[in-house]
Amino acid sequence: MSHSPSLPDRPRLELDPEMSETERLEAIRQHFRRILQVNEELEQRLDDAQGRRGELKTDVDELKRENEVLKTSSLYIASVEEITDEGVVIKQHGNNQEVLTEASTRLDEDLRPGDRVAINDSFAVQQVLDDETDSRAQAMEVTESPDVEYADIGGIDDQIREVREAVEDPLENPEQFEAVGVEPPSGVLLHGPPGTGKTMLAKAVANESDATFIKMAGSELVRKFIGEGSRLVRDLFELAAEREPAVIFIDEIDAVASKRTDSKTSGDAEVQRTMMQLLSEMDGFDDRGEVRIMAATNRFDMLDEAILRPGRFDRLIEVPEPDAEGRARILEIHTQHMNVAEGTDVSEVAADLEGYSGADVASLATEAGMFAIRDGRTEVTLDDFEAARDKLQDAEQTEERVINYQY
Ligand SMILES: Nc1ncnc2c1ncn2[C@@H]1O[C@H](COP(=O)(O)OP(=O)(O)OP(=O)(O)O)[C@@H](O)[C@H]1O
């Protein structure tokens, strides 16, 4: 709170005994004039203070009223969909119910489609929630320099080369593309079974091209941030522009870009809107500077073709399950910091792991280490790898049994 300026000094009358009658009279007159002046000044101050008091009282009354409203009703959370002449269209979180309602005049000007708001029992908008950074932070994983390098990824050298051409080269040598007169691919889609290194590949290319890595999971957009999907997609591209050079990575893109289903539930409409936002962001991509877009899916067959048109995800890279050589390389990578007994040939172990993904191979290495630890040894032997493989296979069979039992 600001302090009021200090009060004027109290005038003092100083009479010298040596003064003549006339001099004294003049001094007293001057003193009188000064007192009148100070008095006027103080009156002015009093007026100002009363005016300010009136203003503050109005604020206090307003806050009291707001407080009462907030105290008497629980508020629900909703998102603003549209602002029309008839009122505000909101959608409640949780049940996805859409309602045409009103906002208090005090909020009228602040509301924007996509805002998160608090509504009361009669759906009137009470508050705009300041969640912009909140859900942004929750929905996006932002890493300045991810700690993955190309050398950490095994068995997919061709894919690494393709990603470097499509993502790293345009980020590092944009002028070369300009000179040759070709447009780099707009978006790169990695597709293939789970756990084969798609996320690693996106992280590594961001790291090696000194770009910020910004990840968003498609499945979370539809599960966790209901009603906010399209706004978050817009925010994602905005954030990337702020942090360029940047690599956007949309994991499980199938969750927001599947072929249209027949059902017309509002949940689908919402997913549809999120996809539309994504498409329009990609279409406006030309002038976006040093931002590259990547996405991944395990369900390539489910994707809506609209997402694959030229200018959108127009570079498709398949990341398959590793072959024996790939598995051996991945096992080598994951055992390089392990104390493996001399003479242990990990490629022999890898040859036996038909159908294992990179992630499976990584957990096999950890499991083998655990066997050594349980046995009180510091060296991991071929037997440990075999025991780990048996254990993982058993676990897989149990899982299959559980699944079969459930169905
Ligand atoms: N090619 C690989 N080389 C080395 N490690 C790998 C490889 N593929 C997978 N891994 C291991 O598996 C983990 C998971 O891989 P990653 O998240 O990149 O797979 P993904 O293809 O994105 O999977 P999902 O489709 O399930 O998201 C990695 O952290 C790494 O430990």
UniProtKB/TrEMBL annotation:
Binding site for ATP: G195, T196, G197, K198, T199, M200, H334
Annotated compartments: Cytoplasm
Origin superkingdom: Archaea
Region (Disordered): 1-21
Coiled coil segments of this chain: 25-73
Composition bias type Basic and acidic residues, residue spans: 9-21
Gene Ontology cellular component list: cytoplasm; proteasome-activating nucleotidase complex
Keyword Ion transport annotated: no
Functional description taken from the UniProt entry: ATPase which is responsible for recognizing, binding, unfolding and translocation of substrate proteins into the archaeal 20S proteasome core particle. Is essential for opening the gate of the 20S proteasome via an interaction with its C-terminus, thereby allowing substrate entry and access to the site of proteolysis. Thus, the C-termini of the proteasomal ATPase function like a 'key in a lock' to induce gate opening and therefore regulate proteolysis.
Family to which the UniProt record says this protein belongs: Belongs to the AAA ATPase family.
Entry domain remark: Consists of three main regions, an N-terminal coiled-coil domain that may assist in substrate recognition, an interdomain involved in PAN hexamerization, and a C-terminal ATPase domain of the AAA type.
Quaternary organization: Homohexamer. The hexameric complex has a two-ring architecture resembling a top hat that caps the 20S proteasome core at one or both ends. Upon ATP-binding, the C-terminus of PAN interacts with the alpha-rings of the proteasome core by binding to the intersubunit pockets.
Protein name per Swiss-Prot or TrEMBL: Proteasome-activating nucleotidase
Phylogenetic classification of the source organism: Archaea, Methanobacteriati, Methanobacteriota, Stenosarchaea group, Halobacteria
